[in-house]
Amino acid sequence: MTKLPEAAIPERKRGEGVKFVYEILRDDILNLVLPPGSPIDEIQLSERLSMSRTPIREALVRLAGEGLVTTLPNRSTVVSNIDFLNLHTFFDALTLMYRVTTRLAAEYRTEADLAQIRAHQAAFTRAVEAQDALAMIATNRDLHAAIAEAGRNPYYSSLFSRLLDEGRRILRIYYSSFDDRLPRQYVDEHEDVIAAIEARDIDTADRLITQHADQIVRQIQRMIAEDRRRPLSL
Amino acid sequence: MTKLPEAAIPERKRGEGVKFVYEILRDDILNLVLPPGSPIDEIQLSERLSMSRTPIREALVRLAGEGLVTTLPNRSTVVSNIDFLNLHTFFDALTLMYRVTTRLAAEYRTEADLAQIRAHQAAFTRAVEAQDALAMIATNRDLHAAIAEAGRNPYYSSLFSRLLDEGRRILRIYYSSFDDRLPRQYVDEHEDVIAAIEARDIDTADRLITQHADQIVRQIQRMIAEDRRRPLSL
DNA sequence: TGTATTTTATTTGTCGACAAAAAATTCAGC
DNA sequence: GCTGAATTTTTTGTCGACAAATAAAATACA
Fold first, then answer.
1. Domain boundaries in chain B?
2. Is the CATH number of domain A84-226 1.20.120.530?
3. What strand order describes the sheet that includes A39-40?
C-alpha cells in the first residue's frame, strides 16, 4: 500500500487506462499484496497512478464482476474475502473443471496447442527447480489455463480461470509451507497428462487429471488443517 | 430503439443509477429488443434515461463482463453476437450445468428451496397454459436458476445463469415456431425432476434432467435446422 | 465518374467538480 | 468519565466538459 518509491509512470495511450489499473489491482489481489478485506481507496489510487477516478471505477466494476472485489453501496470497495467455510464448493467446481477442460483438450488439441502447453509446463518445471513458490503458483495456473484453451469451450475456460485465480489466492496464503516433494510430483503428473492429451486418449487424461486434482485438493486441505491460526471466514 | 412515448422517468435514488440502466439494457438484450450487433449509443441512452454517461458506461462494463455486449476500443459498444457456428460448446456446457446443479439440489435442498422451486414451476405452468412463449422462456429460466440456487454452489450458479440467459436469446429468436406439444411435455418433465429433488434421489434427478436437457438441445437444433434463413454467425 | 485526400462531425475515454451518504469527530448533558 | 446528539470530514455517485480517436462528408484530382 505504502510503496511510493515506484514512481514508474509509463506513458499510457488513450484507452488503456482501465486495462492498466485493472491489471495492477488484479495482480495485487491474486498475490495477496492486497489481502482479503483490504479497502480500495479510489482517490488514493488515482493519486498513485496519476489518473482520474473514472477509469479506476470502471476497473473496479470489472473486478467486481469477476468476484475479486466486493462493492458496498455508498461505502468503500474491499477485496473479496476467501470463504473458508464453503471451500468444498470451490473444490467441487475446481475438480470438475479440471476434468472437463482436460477431456476436451484431449479431444480437440492441435499441434499449436501442444506447443503452448509444453512451454507453460517448461516454465513450471523451471519454477520448481528454482524453488520459487510464487512462480510455481503462477505457472501452474497458466499451464492449466492453456490446456483449457485447447478444449475450445469459452464457457468452461472462463469459469476455470476464475477458479484457478481463486486457487492462486488460497495457495498464496500457505506457500511458505510447501515442501519439496509435492511440486516435483506435480511436474511428473503434468507430463503424464500432457502425454495423454497428445495421444488424444480422453479416458486416460481424465483419470490422470482427476488424480492430480484430488492431490491438489488434499494438499490445500492439509495446509489448512495444519495451520494453527485457522482462519474462519477471514 | 425509437420508443419515445415511454417517458416514465421513475425517481431514482443516488446509487441506483447503474443498476437501473443495467437492468434495462439486460432485459432489452435478452428479449432481443436490442438484437445481436445493435450498437449502443451512450449519448442517446443518457438522453433517454436522463442521466449522465458515467453510470451508463459502468453498466456497459458490467454487461461486457457477462459477455452480453462487446466493447470495441474507441468505437461503439455492440450487443454480442450469438455464435451459431460454435453452438455445440454452448450445448455441452448447458447440459453439464443442468446435471451438476440438479444433482446438488437433490443433495442439499431445504424445504424453503422446494417452496421457491414450486412457485417458479407454477409460474411456468401458467405461461404454458396461456401459450405465452415469452413468459415460458423467462419462467423456465427462473425455475432452473432456482434449482441451481438450492445446490448452493455459487460457481455453478453463476455460469449456469449466464448459459440460461444465452439460451433465452436463442429461444427468443425461434419462439414463433413453438408448437403446443413440447411445452406441456416440459411441465411434466419438470414435475418429475422436482419430485426426485424432493426425494433426495440424486441419480434419478440426474437421469431425468439429462433427458430434459437433451430434449431442449434437440428442440433448439431442430428449430435451427428448419429455419430457412439459417443465420451463420449473424 | 470514380478514387484519394483533406476537412468536418460524431463518439469515446478521461478529467475535475459537486452533492449526497457515511464515517469520524466534537460537543453537550448527565 | 461516559453516552448520545450535532457537526465536521471523508468518500462515493453523478455530472458536464474537453480532447483524442474514429467515422462521415466534402473536396481535389485523375
1. 17-79, 84-226
2. yes
3. A39-40, A77-79, A69-71
ipTM value: 0.87
Q: Is A224 in contact with A84 (CB distance < 8 Å)? A: yes
Q: Give contacts of B82 with chain A, Cβ < 8 Å.
A: none
- Cβ-based neighbours of A151, under 8 Å, separated by 6 or more: A100, A101, A102, A103, A104, A105, A107, A108, A109, A157
Strand D lies under 7 A from the Cβ of residue A52 = no
- Please name the member of B18, B62, B74 whose beta carbon is closest to the beta carbon of A65: B62
A76, A89, A160, best to mutate vs chain B, most B CBs in 10 Å: A89
Residue A162 forms contact with B (CB below 8 Å): yes
Per-residue flag: B10 CB under 7 A of strand D: no
Q: What is the pLDDT of residues B144-201, one digit of tens each?
A: 999 999 999 999 999 999 999 999 999 888 876 666 667 888 999 999 999 999 999 9
- Which residues of chain B neighbour A161 with C-beta distances below 8 Å? none
β-bridge partners, B69: B79
The spacing between the Cα labelled CA in B52 and the C1' in C17, in angstroms, equals 14
Q: Do you know the residue count of chain A?
A: 234
Nearest CB to A65: which of B14, B66, B96?
B66
pLDDT category, B225, cuts 50, 70, 90?
A: confident
Q: Which of residues 16-55 of B touch strand D (CB under 7 A)?
A: 16-18, 50-55
How far is it, in rounded angstroms, from Cα B163 to Cα B161?
Answer: 5
User: Which is nearest to B68 in space by CA: B172, B138, B166, B168?
Assistant: B166
Closest-CA residue of chain B to A67: B155
Q: pLDDT tens across A182-210, in order?
A: 788 899 999 999 999 999 999 999 999 99
Given 3-state DSSP classes, what are the helix, strand and coil percentages for chain B, each rounded to the nearest 5? Answer: 70, 5, 25
Nearest C-alpha neighbor of B100 from the set A24, A66, A93, A199: A93
Beta pairing partners, B77:
B40, B71
**B17-79 carries CATH number 1.10.10.10:** yes
In what order do the strands lie in the sheet containing B39-40?
Answer: B39-40, B77-79, B69-71
